[in-house]
Design brief:
This protein is an all-beta fold and about 350 residues long. Helix content is about 0%, strand content about 50%. The strands form eight sheets. Strands 25, 26, 27, 28 and 29 form a five-stranded antiparallel beta sheet that branches. The radius of gyration is 19 Å and the shape is globular.
Length: about 350
């Protein structure tokens, strides 16, 4: 598409397949942003801000989950798994968090008591975890083709839902859980009735799903793929709602011969107030979008390496950016893993009058 030959970056093994990670440093970016003083020493897998606090949770391939105070730029505490950690999330507030990873455990950590306990195990690595605050339960998705919910107070599994394939990403949205699996399946569940999905869909994008995040207003979700595209989808099935869905190209580069290099879109994060959103790709770029008005809000911001994760602070005043090589081109020299804190102006995040994307 777009009048040129397309080259897609190959999928590569995840970092734990690599015995060593060679690093090289490239020039950074010139912008008004700060840098995390003590970032993870191996690939960053996920980031999340605490509700109503400037505390950032970071999980990584070095088996660690760490809590950082963004305002003081201090690592406050952390804990480790017995293998790479693939996802993390906060509980109802900043005192508790949950995580999962290659060791198959779903872990609950209490920061006040400094206690850690396993809620239970999947049969294969845990790829996604999310907290459903209304029911007070933890939702986990695994490469074992199941989604499980956990009562963290009793440390027990309360439901075990079979899925058509292994989980790549999941997101909680009010009473809904949206799960993206291999082979482009998208399943939408009511968290109160997990026996059968509310909806079963096939991704409107032709290539593997990489990330799903729900709209802040609860009406739908954004889905990104490995082939430089994002789809905007809506939950309601009436014709008016479905007429609003669309997909767009992003995170692509064209050389002087008209050859497109197409990059995976690894990360999505919505602004909590305005509903605009950021995308991050393997091109090392972050872009802000106004999905409602189908408009890019500014030129891409460049970072030293692949964008592995993104997270807006609770007020939307800060965007945390994880610049961390995701092995899309296999083992090679790469810049060190870093987390940047970008202050966001109103102009960068406010929706704009409707024009073409």
């Amino acid at each position: 598409e777009g009048g040129g030959r397309v080259e897609r970056l190959p999928l590569a093994p995840p970092p734990h397949h690599c015995a060593s990670r060679k690093r090289r440093t490239r020039p950074g970016m010139s912008s008004a942003q700060s840098e995390l003083a003590d970032p993870p020493k191996d690939g960053i897998s996920a980031m999340s801000f605490a509700p109503e606090h400037n505390l950032l949770l970071i999980s990584s391939w070095n088996s660690e989950v760490a809590m950082h105070d963004v305002l003081t730029n201090v690592k406050k505490t952390g804990y480790t798994h017995k293998g790479a950690v693939l996802d993390c999330c906060w509980g109802v507030d900043q005192t508790k968090c949950f995580s999962g990873g290659v060791d198959r455990n779903v872990v609950h950590f209490d920061f006040e008591a400094q206690t850690e306990r396993s809620l239970g195990q999947h049969d294969k690595p845990v790829k996604g975890v999310a907290f459903q605050k209304d029911l007070g339960c933890v939702v986990s998705g695994s490469w074992d083709k199941t989604m499980r919910t956990w009562d963290h107070r009793q440390a027990q599994c309360v439901s075990n839902t079979s899925l058509p394939d292994k989980v790549f990403t999941l997101a909680v949205c009010q009473n809904r859980v949206v799960v993206g699996t291999a082979n482009r399946h998208v399943l939408i569940y009511d968290v109160r009735k997990l026996g059968e999905p509310e909806q079963e869909r096939e991704s409107s994008l032709k290539f593997q799903t990489r990330c799903i995040r729900c709209f802040p207003n609860g009406t739908g979700y954004a889905l990104s793929s490995i082939e430089g595209r994002v789809a905007m989808e809506y939950f309601e099935l009436d014709s008016a709602s479905q007429a609003k869905k669309y997909a767009f190209k992003c995170h692509r580069a064209q050389d002087e011969k008209g050859v497109d290099t197409v990059y995976p879109v690894n990360a999505l994060s919505f602004h909590p107030s305005y509903g605009t959103f950021a995308t991050g790709g393997c091109d090392g770029k972050v872009i802000m979008w106004d999905g409602e008005n189908k408009k890019r809000l500014q030129a891409p911001w460049a970072y030293p390496s692949s964008i592995a994760a993104l997270a807006f602070s609770p007020t939307g005043a800060i965007l945390a950016v994880a610049s961390s090589y995701t092995f899309e081109e296999g083992e090679k020299d790469h810049p060190p893993d870093k987390v940047f804190f970008r202050p966001m102006s109103e102009q960068e995040v406010k929706p704009r009058p409707k024009q073409g994307l």
